[in-house]
Amino acid sequence: MTTTVKTDAESGTGAERAPWTPDELTERLRAVSAARYHDRHPFNVRMHEGTLTRAELRRWIANRFHYQRHIPVKDALILAKFDDPALRRGWSRRIRDHDGERPGEGGIERWLRLGEAAGIPRAELWDTSRVLPGVRLAVDGYVNFCRLRPALDAVAASLTELSAPDLMRTRIAAFERHYPWIDTEGLTYFRGRVGQGGRDGQEALGLVRAWARTREEQERAVAALAFKCDVLWSLLDAVSGGAPAGSSCGAFGEAAGAGAGAGAGVGEGDGDA
Ligand SMILES: O=C(O)c1cc(C(=O)O)c2c(n1)C(=O)C(=O)c1cc(C(=O)O)[nH]c1-2
């Protein structure tokens, strides 16, 4: 394969195509997160205010599990793009964080325990019966992005994790204050992610800063992060919308077809905040 490299003058774009410095790139990445990260999504805002019903919170836990279980899958797809043993060693730690070193450990197990603390049997999380159509599409979109795009784009998409630790702290405080019906033991997943998310985000940022040298590569990294913000946002849009009519996939003690806010629970004190 031959690659033709055009100078700025040849491509007719002049100085505007000059690469950003690594710090300028970082600033642009942070600006994308500041504008589009899902901490500002109305569903998260309601979660933090304490106004989600039990049914809504269960719907979120069950649907977010679909995202969680696919994180190590997308990380394995990224791993397969690396030909450097040191890179693979570093990235494979993410898979172990989620899958654990042995049965009964790891992030997926901790999310299953969160589900149990909220009254959702683990079999019901595994069998995907609660997964909403929009959540399936958002998660597929992210996995396929990491499958099909170059390593730079796939790693840049994970940079939402730079914003995740603050969100985890807010979430833990909100759960303890507003949703005491969920045993605090169930929050272990979020507690662990404060440190893991920060570390993973910094590691990915170092790689993106080192790899994205041309303006085209830098713009791809920024676009990848924007795409990932859209994945997380779309997931919450779907969770907010609730179950399609006639389906039980988003419903927890609600009539099928009821949307967000219609959390009149069936015999489980659902309306309390
Ligand atoms: O609960 C959240 O808001 C949240 C957000 C994100 C994120 O920002 O991508 C991740 C997680 N959680 C998470 O638990 C997680 O393991 C994770 C991995 C990744 C990733 O893209 O590699 N993001 C996130």
UniProtKB/TrEMBL annotation:
Q: Name the pathway it acts in.
A: Cofactor biosynthesis; thiamine diphosphate biosynthesis; Cofactor biosynthesis; pyrroloquinoline quinone biosynthesis
Annotated GO molecular function terms are: pyrroloquinoline-quinone synthase activity
Catalytic reactions on record: 6-(2-amino-2-carboxyethyl)-7,8-dioxo-1,2,3,4,7,8-hexahydroquinoline-2,4-dicarboxylate + 3 O2 = pyrroloquinoline quinone + 2 H2O2 + 2 H2O + H(+)
Q: What is this protein called?
A: Pyrroloquinoline-quinone synthase
Function comment: Ring cyclization and eight-electron oxidation of 3a-(2-amino-2-carboxyethyl)-4,5-dioxo-4,5,6,7,8,9-hexahydroquinoline-7,9-dicarboxylic-acid to PQQ.
Q: What is its EC number?
A: 1.3.3.11
The UniProt gene name for this protein comes to: pqqC
Q: Which regions form coiled coils?
A: none
Domain Thiaminase-2/PQQC span(s) in chain numbering: 28-237
Which InterPro entries does this chain map to?
A: Haem_Oase-like_multi-hlx (IPR016084), PqqC (IPR011845), PqqC-like (IPR039068), Thiaminase-2/PQQC (IPR004305)
Q: Which HAMAP family match?
A: PQQ_syn_PqqC
Location of the region described as Disordered in the Swiss-Prot/TrEMBL record: 1-21
Q: Has UniProt tagged this entry with the keyword Oxidoreductase?
A: yes
